[in-house]
Design a protein that fits this description.
136 residues, eight-stranded antiparallel beta barrel, elongated, alpha+beta
Length: 136
């Protein structure tokens, strides 16, 4: 009888743990994603010029800051993002409003920790788009 109660208790505790982990995953990822991220120029790691920044506001809004080589010439364009699950989000914006269509699509989070963000997007048989950011 004790063994049955212990097994039942252990099973319920394990179920509660699994449900807690899966239910909190998406929200925890979004909290880490919030803020402003500067894209790293992987072709030239010494390049300190910020060409592209993404800002996740927490209001389902992503702001894409695109800098030309003249720092005074900056465009801040607004789009929307939705967390699909704890490892994936979808970005959308209107090209008519000036949004960069290259940012649209479903992005998979490869790494999100210690101020580092790496995302990829499947280009439907044409390869992957890879972006790496550091948190500002």
């Amino acid at each position: 009888m004790k063994t049955r109660k212990y097994s039942l208790f252990l099973g319920l505790a394990l179920l509660a743990l699994v449900l807690t982990l899966f239910s909190c995953g998406k929200g925890a990822t979004e909290n880490k994603l919030l803020g402003r991220w500067c894209r790293i120029n992987l072709d030239n790691l010494d390049d300190s010029l910020r060409i592209e920044e993404w800002e996740f506001t927490g209001e389902d809004l992503v702001i894409h800051h695109h800098h030309a080589y003249d720092p005074a010439d900056t465009a801040a364009l607004s789009g929307m993002y939705v967390m699909n699950n704890y490892r994936e989000f979808t970005v959308s914006g209107s090209v008519e409003d000036g949004w960069n269509a290259d940012a649209n699509g479903t992005w998979r989070i490869v790494k999100l920790k210690k101020g580092s963000l790496i995302i990829i997007r499947d280009e439907g048989g044409h390869g992957l788009t890879f972006k790496e950011f550091k948190k500002l």
